[in-house]
Write a structure and sequence with these properties.
alpha/beta; Rossmann fold; three-stranded parallel sheet; 47% helix
Length: 328
Amino acid sequence: MRSIKKLLVGLTIGLSIVTFNAMSDSSSMKTVTIGILVPVQLPALNEIVAGFEGELSHLYNTNNTRVIYLVENAEGSTDMMRSILMQFKNQNVDMVVPIGTIANQIALPIIKTQPIVALAALFTEADRANSSNKNITNIVDELTIEQQLTFIHKAMPNLKYLTLVYSPEERSNAYIQRTNVAAQNNGITLQLLKIKQASEISNVNTLINTNSQAMFILKDELLASGVPELIKIANTRHIPLIASDDGSVSNGAAFAVGVGERQIGSDGASLALKVLQGTPAKNVPIDIMTNYRVFINSSAAAMQHLDLSDVTSTANAYNYLVIYPDVT
């Protein structure tokens, strides 16, 4: 009986020590909270978030720190973006990650004390130098418009008339002027169709020039949400829809030159790690991605009457890997 009592006492003491240690481990566990602003619900943006979370959790692997991700979707509303950013500010999250140019533009005047790591925003070193808020670093995920139009010209050597559909909220007047010059330098006459809201995308079918040989869309959330409507127009008119991201190609665009969405998030995680390890965001160089790919949807290209032989040969000439993404 006495030996049983000793055993029970020993077990009680042992359990107390385990409980104490667990409480101690729990109390010493640090948390890092990251607020991620997703401007609108799109598969491409979900891929960016997945790449960021997966890579950062892998890189920032410490025994006493837990990373918490607060992912908030603004459902395409700029007012909701501001509300979410104010929420992140008031919660004093450790880092704010806006996705896209508009989200980043809205974040800069609101988030002044926490570091910003922007993903897929048109924000360069020159922009940071001229910004009142320099507590930011960024992943630039696009080729320049000059690079894009030169590639398109070589991939479609007979292209003379091109319709560019764009959102003025994403693209400045200076950017559009550069686009016009780049088109002229490649012997392309450019039709500009400005879309201010999603409901206007269906109007493209009546506004597009009858001479247009292709439609081209840049990377922005508004146009990405309207890709299904643009694909209908491209298929009906038998002209290719040229995109700037792999998600649009999966959805039915003929081809795109750019980078993978998940890779944007992964590369952004590398910048976030430097900030979490103590480097001020303003001192982390803005990363311009260069691992460009050519994404091709063969069935869409056939429906849109595009011969892909020049597209693939141009990709090979540039040493861009050709990828055939899963078609949705």
